[in-house]
User: Fold these one by one.
Assistant:
Number 1:
Amino acid sequence: MKIEIDRPRCEGHARCNAIVPELFVLDEDGYIDTDGFDVPPALEDDAEVAAASCPERVITVVR
Ligand code: F3S
């Protein structure tokens, strides 16, 4: 499973980071600091919750 992030649309709500901080890293201004990544199997459920939590819908789960 992968996560893709439409980074320019991030508004810094930080809900993703609050749920899985080790995957959804923020920059010094509080915006998401990655365009995407592979999700370790043990974190897939949490990553899906985090994706759904983003009010701007910038996080996409790819299987
Ligand atoms: Fe940005 Fe959404 Fe996370 S707006 S900081 S990707 S909750």
Number 2:
Amino acid sequence: MFVHQRQGSLEVICGPMFSGKSEELIRRIKRAIIAKQKVQVFKPALDDRYDASAIASHSQRKHEAIPVKNTEELLRHLDPEAQVVALDEAQFLDEGLIPIIEELANRGVRVIAGGLDQDSNGEPFGIMPILLAKAEYVTKLQAICMVCGALAGRTQRMVHTGGQVLVGAAEAYEARCRHCHETPH
Ligand code: ADP
Ligand code: ZN
């Protein structure tokens, strides 16, 4: 049955590292471009893995993105004509983003946010739990556990240097299932 849907919504793509969030985000961006939509892509400036001005997946798929240090900078770059606004690594962006996303979705923009739902201790990461609560559509992806081969919903930190953020160091992390995931004590 066809159900009429008004434009403007929030989609969240979450999961651990290596679960394919960036691939899925890039796939949605490419399809929106094929549909001739005006798309703008942002990423936090602190995420400089592979490329400073692109989002890149671990499988080397790429798409251009505007690096922004905070919500203020994002607002300065925001194109009022954009029909689709995509954000990668949304867990690193500040709380100021939440009302901006709401406003965009309310005025008809399709907002797509990708990000880690849990940090490497298995705790909710940054603004992601709020975005998940506010989203119309949530895609939760899983990777493959590097210990047992099961589906993995968590990110294991292999290097313990303290702090929640250790950016751009894929080799410092591994996807793990809940049984194989270990948190430092
Ligand atoms: P994310 O954005 O969630 O970190 P990416 O889209 O960057 O994920 O990368 C997903 C790709 O990573 C997969 O298609 C696969 O090629 C690769 N990969 C590497 N390690 C794993 C793993 N443990 N489980 C699943 N995919 C992995
Ligand atoms: Zn496992």
